[in-house]
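Hey, resending since the last one bounced:
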Amino acid sequence: MKKHLLIAALFIAASSVFGAPKKLYVAVQNGELRDKNSVKGKVVCNVEYADVVLADKFNKKDKWILVYPVGDRSSKGYIKLTELSEKKLVAGKKVTANAKEIALAGKGFNASVEQVFKTNSDLNYSAVDSVELNGYELEKVVEFVEAGNLIVGD
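The structure tokens again:
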């Protein structure tokens, strides 16, 4: 009996170490996989909302996680865990969410959610739309932060 318990325990330990990669979904409109766990890292690969990425090691306490797109292990890179979701996301699918859910998500404001809000309220999103069109270069933001000696986390 002890032998069977030992074998079962070893099997469980081995499967947790050598188990299948964790499937995660990109929860931001445009994400970037980087060669190191910092915004200063070089972009290895771009990912979009609802893309599936895999993580060989997954810890909810990590700020950054090393992932790779399904079918492309060579494009392995780091992305902030806050930009990922364990919940399956579908690109282009109409989203119905209440204000509390959106506030809790903290993952960005995609077009589907924005459309729901536009149809259900009198709020004016034209200023937000114009800012989104401007865009920015992350490298320039990093230069600005460094030049101003601003304190910033990863």
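Residues 66 and 78 are 4 Å apart (CA to CA).

Sorry for the duplicate.
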